[in-house]
Write a structure and sequence with these properties.
By secondary structure, the protein is mainly α. The protein has helices at about 5-25, 30-40, 45-60. It has one domain. Helix 1 crosses helix 3. The chain is globular, with a radius of gyration of 14 Å.
Length: about 60
Amino acid sequence: MTHDERDRVIADLRKSHARYEFVRTLTPHAFTFLWQRCLRGEKFDAMVDELILERAKAVTNGTL
């Protein structure tokens, strides 16, 4: 495994861990809403990534 491949794997693992930690903070109702969207064909990881960015922006702006 090259250094670039290793770095890419580490980046993917960090991203997956961030998703996991975010999902752990969801209420059962919020998780169910995401899961229903997923069942309608939306990509679960993409939805979670979007919500992580929204939360980060809210924290930065002081609105959370």
